[in-house]
Amino acid sequence: MRRVLYLQWDCFGEEYICESLKKAGMDVEMYPLPYGKISMRHDEEFEAGLVKHIGGNEYEFVFSFNYFPAVALACHKTGDKYVSWTYDSPFMFLYSTTIAFDTNLAFVFDKATVEELRGKGIRTIHYLPMAAPTDYYDSLYSSSAIRKTYQSEVSFVGSLYTEERQDLMKNLEGIRPESRQYLEALMGMQLQSYAMPILEKFLRPEIVADMQRVYPFIAEEDEMQSEAWMYANYFLARQVTARERTMLLEHIGNDHQLKLYTPEPTPQFSNVDNKGPVDYCNEMPYVFKNSQINLNISLKSIYSGIPLRAFDIMGCGGFLVSDFQSDFGELFVPDEDYVFYTTPEDLYAKVAYYLEHEEKRKQIAQNGYEKVKEKHTYDCRVKQILDML
After folding, report:
1. Model-level pTM?
2. Low-confidence ranges of the chain (pLDDT < 50)
3. Phi/psi of residue 231, nearest 5 degrees
4. Can you say whether residue 152 is alpha, beta or left, with left for phi > 0 and alpha for psi between -120 and 50 degrees?
5. Rounded to a whole number, what is the largest CA-CA distance in the chain?
6. CB atoms within 10 A of CB 181
7. Which residues is 274 bridged to in the sheet?
8. How many CB atoms lie within 10 A of CB 117?
């Protein structure tokens, strides 16, 4: 039997990808990945242990969700194929020079990121959208008690990026007033732009230099990303997302019943029902199944990709209203499988419209569900990966 070494860490989708690999005839062996405990860019002890383990067995490939240079280094030494599927954005490790190793097969859910890296000469990176475990979601039954717990007119599941650990802008308090003014204007422009990421493009060198002066970013030897990329995607994008999500949810909550599932308290809201965090496998599907409208408000560092949240919503048979992300256009039909908005006013109008038009809403949700079930499950993605191999 063909064997796969699955690198296990606290990630989304582990149960689903492993089950699909087994259904495809693969024997899946688990191996612990100490992400967050050691440097996954390079750690000699970890790499030596992985090299020894791989060398003593025969694997079709090594697999991990998200790409890790330390794993790539180990697999490059043994000559084994390292398959990764990255769903986080931004994800700095993708910009490691190790990504070019011919032993890599790196899949990324955001097509714009793939095109960017291919523009740098990287040929080991490929576009692979996320997926949903529709068979598992179909097995979940919403009892009357569950429906009462999770039903809502509108729901949003996710971080607001207002948490202390997410607010990296606080580290830039010492920049010059003119730099602060420029950054505020730039973030305001991005807040109004739903078709194009502009933060990195318009982050001027003198502004970056001032940010470096206050909070320096020192690149590792294997890093390809620029200082502007780092500040734009980790600092500015999160701040813009925090402002956008807060603004949109507050406005919708003033007009409609809105349940928010997020890990931190939200005292800034008066009419949003914060239910706290939900477990990804055991609770979140019930939110999507029992909400009339499920929102996707993408993190601004996701250039074009469809977030995992959107696939899960449609895979649960939920009605999805999302911000504009160009990758949707390759897989789904707007107003047939899902609905997208292009301005805050457009969002508010569409939420009100679809709350009043139940039959249209249910038909769109059903169409989206059927398309995900047919073309965008983990079984489908495993087949694509194995075909590529």
Report:
1. 0.96
2. none
3. -70, -40
4. beta
5. 64
6. 11
7. 260
8. 20
Whose CA is closest to 381, among 182, 84, 145, 122? Answer: 84
Task: Write the pLDDT tens digit of every residue in 163-217.
Answer: 777 788 888 999 999 999 999 999 999 998 887 889 999 999 999 999 999 999 8
For residue 321, the cross-strand partners are 295, 339
Show Cβ contacts of residue 236 under 8 Å, excluding neighbours closer than 6 positions.
169, 183, 186, 187, 190, 199, 203, 300
If you search the block for the tokens 């706290």, which residue do you land on? Answer: 276
With both helix axes pointing from N to C terminus, report the angle between 308-315 and 358-375 in degrees, rounded to the nearest 10. Answer: 110
| Residue pair 314/337 in contact by the 8 Å Cβ criterion | yes
**Domain 2-128 matches domain 134-165+240-376 at the CATH topology level:** yes
CB 259 within 8 A of CB 152: yes
pLDDT digits (tens, 9 = 90+) for 252-311: 999 999 999 999 999 999 999 999 999 999 999 999 999 999 999 999 999 999 999 999
Strands 291-296 and 273-274 turn out to be unpaired
**C-alpha distance from residue 365 to each of 90, 147, 222, 320, 325 (Å):** 29, 18, 44, 7, 18
Q: How far is CA 38 from CA 35, 45, 48, 68, 86, in A?
A: 6, 10, 14, 12, 19
State the number of CA atoms in the 13 A half-sphere of 282 facing the CB: 2
Distances (CA, A) of 369 to 109, 312, 313, 335, 355: 19, 9, 8, 13, 19
**Rounded Cα gap, residues 334 and 31, in angstroms:** 41
CATH H-level superfamily of 134-165+240-376: Glycogen Phosphorylase B; (3.40.50.2000)
Q: Dump the DSSP string for 47-100.
A: HHHHHHHHHTS--SEEEEES--HHHHHHHHHHT--EEEEE--SS-GGGGBGGGG
In CATH terms, the superfamily for domain 2-128 is Glycogen Phosphorylase B; (3.40.50.2000)
What does the domain layout of the chain look like in residue ranges? 2-128, 134-165+240-376, 168-237
User: Starting from the edge strand earliest in sequence, which strands make up the sheet with 61-65, in order?
Assistant: 26-32, 2-8, 61-65, 82-86, 104-108, 125-127
Residue pair 40/14 in contact (Cβ under 8 Å)? The answer is: no
